[in-house]
Structures are given as structure tokens and as C-alpha cells.
Specification:
The complex is a heterodimer of chains A (about 210) and B (about 100). Chain A folds into two domains: about 1-145, no CATH class; about 160-210. In chain A, about 70% of the residues lie in helices and about 0% in strands. Chain A has helices at about 1-15, 20-30, 35-45, 50-60, 65-70, 80-85, 95-100, 110-135, 145-160, 165-180, 185-205. Chain A is globular and about 50 Å long. Chain B has helices at about 1-20, 30-55, 65-80, 85-100. Classes of the chains: A mainly alpha (about 210), B mainly alpha (about 100). Chains A and B meet through helix 1, helix 2, helix 3, helix 4 and helix 5 of A and helix 1, helix 2, helix 3 and helix 4 of B.
């Protein structure tokens, strides 16, 4: 929970630094509520990417929610559809990890308690971050523009376990680089991200999912 | 901007709601699960590496590029399970220091 707060504070600060308005940063955090994809969207928006490319990239980054929603679904049979439509908004990997580590199938109450706490910590952290972020002048001098790719690289590095993971990550990086120097815009992210992960899933061992 | 944020919110909701509302009884097919797991592993480097090595579509030619060394530091630290934000802060500090020198 404290780590979510700090992570959200960093996001709020960097998003304001990148030129987003405080209201936009808060609206995004409440309405999208998916940290990694928000980190992805901010530098794209700052660089003037088209709304369509930002929205599609957000979708692709968040596709892993399908996996969580499918795993959580059997635990939520007792809820009305209206409730489920609301609960769906807080399907997020931190709460998912908490619920799944406690029991299989995950317990609905554990998940919801964790999700509520994380929502408060996340939005609170972003709010604090937007207040701090406005105070720093000359962000490039402090290397803060590098914080975005740094977050992405750190997220990848912590997830690399198997040889297959390395092949996918390195392959996708090279493919994206090759596309980025030829094709203007941000399409290299979606093209390399979907095709190289797809190749990994086609040729990898599907039972090897540790 | 409102359009972008609304679109992001909708796109994200579409990744969360359908399977929860369907109350899926069966797990997703194994290969589909694997693909969904691998997508972030492919998307994040596809995003980060061009930002570091080819900002604006221009390949960086110099080995003295501060972001290159910042990236190496972040990747190695985070890969050794150093706290995510500590790793990021170290990378940012390296970039700032190299820029100050160069």
C-alpha cells in the first residue's frame, strides 16, 4: 500500500512536469486507474501523439486485465450485474496479486478490500504528486524526462524469469527500434508488442506459465 | 485531451468488465493466457528502448549518451530485485550526473 502511494506520487509529479493539467492527471487516475498504462500515455501525450494511438496503446498495455478478470470471475457469482459492472473498474494487478496469494480461488472480500485501499492510496498519491511536481523547474536538468523509460525498463526487468521472457523482451525491443526509425508516430509499440508476444505464445510451451 | 482520457478509460474498462460480467466458468485457453502474460513483456521494451536509443526516430550514434547508461543502471538494479523506485531514481541520477559533466 505505501509503495502504491509513492508510485502514484511519482506519476502525479511527472505527469504535471510533462505538461498535463492537474485536473487531467486526476481525471485520468480516477477513470483509467491503471498505473502502468498511465505512465505509458503521459510521454506520448506530451510528445503530441494522436488520441487514437494513445487509446490503442492503453488498450494493449491493459490487455493483461483479461487474465485477471477471468481468474476472479468465479469468485464473484453472488454479486448482481450492476455491482459487477462497478467492481470491474477496480480490477488491478496489485489487488489481484494480494487475493490470489491468499487463496485459490481468490476470495471476493479480500480482493475488494485491497482494491478499495489501493484506489484511495493511488488517487491520494497522485494528488500529492501533482502538488510537488509543479515545484520543479528544468526537469531535464535533473534527468526527470528519463524517468518514464526508466519505469518501463524496471517493470520489464522484474518480470523476466524464463529464457522465453528474455527472447520476447529483447526481440520486441529490436523490432520496435527497427520500426521506430522508419515509421513516424508511435505504432512501433503496438506492432512490436502484439506480434512478438504473439510469436512467443505460439512457439512457447503453454503449460510453462510459472 | 478530454477525448484521449475518455477513450483511455473506455479502452481500459473493456479489458476489465467483459470477462468479469460473463462470470467465466472455464479458464482461458492456455496459449491465450500465455499471450496475455507476454504482452507487457513485449510492449514495455518496445516503448522504452526507442525512447532511449531513437528519440524522435533518430538513432543515437554516441556511446556517451546519458540515457543509454541510465537505462543500463535501471535494468541491472531492477533485475537484481532492487526496489523499483530506487532503481528508477538511480537511473535518473546517472542521467542527471552525465548531463552535468557533458
Amino acid at each position: 500500500m505505501p509503495s502504491v502511494f509513492v508510485y502514484a506520487t511519482v506519476f502525479g509529479g511527472l505527469a504535471v512536469q510533462a505538461g498535463l493539467h492537474v485536473v487531467e492527471v486526476l481525471a485520468m487516475s480516477v477513470l483509467v486507474f491503471a498505473g502502468a498504462s498511465q505512465f505509458v500515455a503521459v510521454p506520448m501525450i506530451a510528445a503530441g501523439a494522436s488520441p487514437l494511438s494513445v487509446i490503442l496503446t492503453t488498450y494493449v498495455v491493459n490487455m493483461c486485465h483479461y487474465l485477471m478478470a477471468a481468474t476472479l470471475a468465479p469468485s464473484f457469482g453472488a454479486f448482481s450485474r450492476r455491482r459487477l459492472a462497478l467492481i470491474a473498474h477496480v480490477v488491478i494487478d496489485e489487488s489481484f496479486a494480494v487475493a490470489v496469494s491468499r487463496s485459490r480461488p481468490p476470495d471476493a472480500a479480500v480482493f475488494l478490500g485491497s482494491a478499495a485501499a489501493i484506489f484511495v492510496a493511488f488517487v491520494g498519491g497522485v494528488t500529492v504528486g501533482t502538488l510537488i511536481g509543479g515545484l520543479v523547474a528544468e526537469p531535464e536538468r535533473y534527468g526527470l524526462d528519463f524517468a518514464f523509460p526508466a519505469v518501463f525498463l524496471a517493470l520489464v526487468a522484474t518480470r523476466l524469469r524464463h529464457r522465453r521472457d528474455w527472447l520476447v523482451a529483447v526481440g520486441s525491443a529490436l523490432a520496435a527500434l527497427a520500426i521506430a526509425v522508419r515509421l513516424p508516430g508511435n505504432w512501433h509499440i503496438i506492432i512490436a508488442g502484439l506480434t512478438v508476444s504473439g510469436a512467443g505464445a505460439l512457439f512457447g510451451d503453454p503449460e510453462d506459465t510459472a | 485531451m478530454a477525448l484521449t482520457i475518455a477513450g483511455m478509460a473506455l479502452a481500459t474498462y473493456l479489458t476489465r468488465a467483459p470477462l468479469l460480467l460473463a462470470l467465466a466458468r472455464r479458464p482461458l485457453p492456455a496459449r491465450l493466457r500465455l499471450w496475455l502474460r507476454l504482452i507487457p513483456l513485449a510492449v514495455l521494451p518496445a516503448l522504452a528502448v526507442p525512447m532511449v536509443l531513437a528519440p524522435g526516430g533518430q538513432l543515437v550514434a554516441s556511446a556517451g549518451e546519458p540515457r543509454l547508461w541510465g537505462a543500463v543502471v535501471v535494468f541491472v538494479l531492477a533485475g537484481r530485485r532492487v526496489n523499483l523506485l530506487v532503481s528508477v531514481a538511480a537511473g535518473v541520477a546517472v542521467v542527471a550526473a552525465l548531463r552535468a559533466i557533458g
